[in-house]
Amino acid sequence: MAERTSKKVLVTGGAGYVGSHAALELMRAGHRVTIIDTLERGSAAVIERLQAQGPIEFIQGDCGDHSILSPVLEDMDAIMHFAAYAKIDESVKFPDMYEKNNVDVTRILLDCAVEHDVASFMLSSTCAVYGTPSDTKRPVTENSPLAAANPYGQSKISAENLLRSAAEEGRIATGVLRYFNVLGSDEQGVLKEPIEDPRLVSACIQSALGNRETLTVYGTEYDTPDGTAIRDFVHVTDIAGAHLAFMEAIEKGPMRIYNVGCGHGISVRSIIKAVEKAAGHGIPVIEGDPRKGDISAIWADNSLIRSELGWEPRYQDINRMVATSWQAATSD
Ligand SMILES: NC(=O)c1ccc[n+]([C@@H]2O[C@H](COP(=O)([O-])OP(=O)(O)OC[C@H]3O[C@@H](n4cnc5c(N)ncnc54)[C@H](O)[C@@H]3O)[C@@H](O)[C@H]2O)c1
What we know:
This protein has eleven helices and 13 strands. Strand 1 (8-12), helix 1 and strand 2 form a beta-alpha-beta unit. The chain is globular and about 55 Å long. The chain has helices at 17-28, 44-51, 66-73, 88-93, 95-115, 151-168, 200-208, 236-249, 268-279, 303-309, 318-329, and strands at residues 8-12, 32-37, 56-60, 78-81, 120-126, 173-179, 181-183, 215-218, 230-231, 233-235, 256-260, 266-267, 285-288. The protein has a domain at 8-181 and 232-261 and 301-313: NAD(P)-binding Rossmann-like Domain (Rossmann fold, 3-Layer(aba) Sandwich). Nicotinamide-adenine-dinucleotide (NAD) is lined by residues 12-13, 15-19, 36-42, 62-64, 82-84, 86, 101, 105, 124, 126, 179, 181-182.
């Protein structure tokens, strides 16, 4: 195993949900972190919370801006590229916006990283690159066919391809982490999971807090044990841990890709029950029809990252994962 030394790491999108948790874990592990974020979708409060934990450099700006990047990358060991737009519905409405921010910005950042001899570049990708594989083709492995069903997933495939070419040309060490459904918050309460977005856990928490009247479950007659759809949920701190483990192992050569999921399916009904358990009361649920294009079940085969990086999710139990979401939503 490579020796662990303190590294200088650029975290793009570090004022957002996943990037801030990665920045926190990097700092806890003794690395030196610089964050670039436009704050368009992240918040200054997140940066303040991080800076209260230790010295983190923050630059407000676009990580596709060469003039900002150049001085920063002069002395950087690694880049973790979280900055992106990541809303499927929005990507369908504004595909060009996704192409620009998720692909063109990645190209500029990658070229600038090569120019400044940064050793490694890790990209946040998504299980959306697999599209909607048929029920016979699960769990998905890193070799499952790529068939993004929306411009968001397509933009991540294109960004992955940029990194693959750079690795093949021997320009830089690159790697991709394809996350499944991320949830949870830092257990020590430093950071908070955003609950304004349309994710299932957020919707359940908003319902439990009384901020929305009902919660619709789309599809209750799937061929699954409780009739609701099954997905792979992974805790945000485990995602951060995967990045740290990857940074120690990444090297020049063919680009490596890893699925980052808990490795088993968790039903929509189990998530609702976990939020009810954390809240101590029920949530009013409406049973709706399945949404067009939704599949009954998808989860990750995570054996590759386990065997090659020695990573394994510390959070396996959905009640424990959701308890961290609830704690964050109900504390200062
Ligand atoms: N959250 C999930 O469930 C999930 C799942 C799979 C993959 N991902 C990927 O993880 C990454 C982070 O997702 P997130 O949920 O934390 O999103 P987020 O919106 O919370 O964070 C993204 C951050 O990037 C910033 N940003 C966007 N474009 C920028 C640019 N050009 N320059 C500088 N800053 C910019 C935003 O202001 C925001 O703070 C994304 O690449 C996303 O595709 C997330």
